């Protein structure tokens, strides 16, 4: 193995991908955003006009598509069938539909297997909802990032403004709560903190502070 497996889980907009990218950079590890994989499948289903409760058709999409990542200055680009969907998968429509797709057993089974293959040699920071509990139960480092829902809605609001999206703050908070509820209450590998994960509350911390907390945990295992 060339380095550890670092699993970073937590609810929506807790800052997982931002800090995961920086941690990966610091340790020269690969970064893998598993949420992007669920989002890419959701985008393709929407584009093909497939209803989100049509489980067999959505499972077929996963089977027949190839999701790949390439690193870039900002972290990574996401491709499905060689189309760059890095921006399209962040739309409000995909964000508010993805939990339904992520609850489908056949989708989780296939994407988890792909994630395990990506992580098998270690030297990886993988973020998601079930990485420490289901995808990489033996990861040497498990982090569970949380933040108050008000703070998470504020962060999402700021990001949106930069992208020219103007959803009101209270609406964003309701969307985040709804997504967390669905992700935490689905039958298969719901969002939950692994018993051996280190929980970090990022509400009052800067990005750098969170990165340095995680780096401490990693260094303690090296
Ligand atoms: O991390 P992000 O917010 O991009 O994830 C989008 C959605 O993908 C989550 O709300 C969840 O429904 C799903 N997901 C998942 N398991 C993961 C990563 C993401 O179910 N490991």
TrEMBL record:
It is found in: Cytoplasm. Keywords: ATP-binding, Cytoplasm, Kinase, Nucleotide-binding, Transferase. SUPFAM superfamilies: P-loop containing nucleoside triphosphate hydrolases (SSF52540). It comes from the Bacteria. GO terms for molecular function: kinase activity. Residues 6-219 form the Cytidylate kinase domain. Its EC number is 2.7.4.25. ATP binds at residues 10-18. It catalyses: dCMP + ATP = dCDP + ADP; CMP + ATP = CDP + ADP. Belongs to the cytidylate kinase family. Type 1 subfamily. PANTHER family: CYTIDYLATE KINASE (PTHR21299:SF2), CYTIDYLATE KINASE/PANTOATE-BETA-ALANINE LIGASE (PTHR21299). This is Cytidylate kinase.
């Amino acid at each position: 193995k060339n380095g550890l497996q670092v699993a970073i889980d937590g609810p929506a907009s807790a800052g997982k991908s931002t800090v995961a990218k920086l941690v990966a950079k610091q340790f020269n590890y690969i970064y893998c955003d598993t949420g992007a994989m669920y989002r890419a499948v959701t985008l393709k289903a929407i584009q093909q006009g497939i209803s989100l409760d049509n489980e067999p058709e959505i499972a077929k999409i996963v089977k027949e598509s190839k999701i790949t990542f390439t690193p870039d200055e900002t972290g990574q680009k996401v491709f499905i069938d060689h189309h760059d969907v890095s921006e399209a998968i962040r739309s409000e429509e995909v964000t508010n539909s993805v939990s339904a797709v992520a609850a489908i057993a056949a989708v989780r089974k296939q994407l988890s297997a792909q994630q395990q293959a990506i992580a098998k040699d270690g030297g990886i920071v993988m973020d998601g909802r079930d990485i420490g509990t289901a995808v990489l139960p033996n990861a040497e480092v498990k982090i569970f990032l949380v933040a108050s829902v008000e703070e998470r809605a504020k962060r999402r609001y700021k990001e949106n403004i930069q992208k020219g999206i103007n959803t009101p703050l209270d609406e964003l908070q309701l969307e985040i709560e709804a997504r967390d509820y669905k992700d935490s209450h689905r039958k298969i590998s719901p969002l939950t903190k692994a018993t051996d994960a280190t929980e970090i509350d990022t509400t009052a911390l800067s990005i750098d502070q969170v990165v340095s907390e995680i780096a401490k945990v990693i260094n303690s295992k090296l």
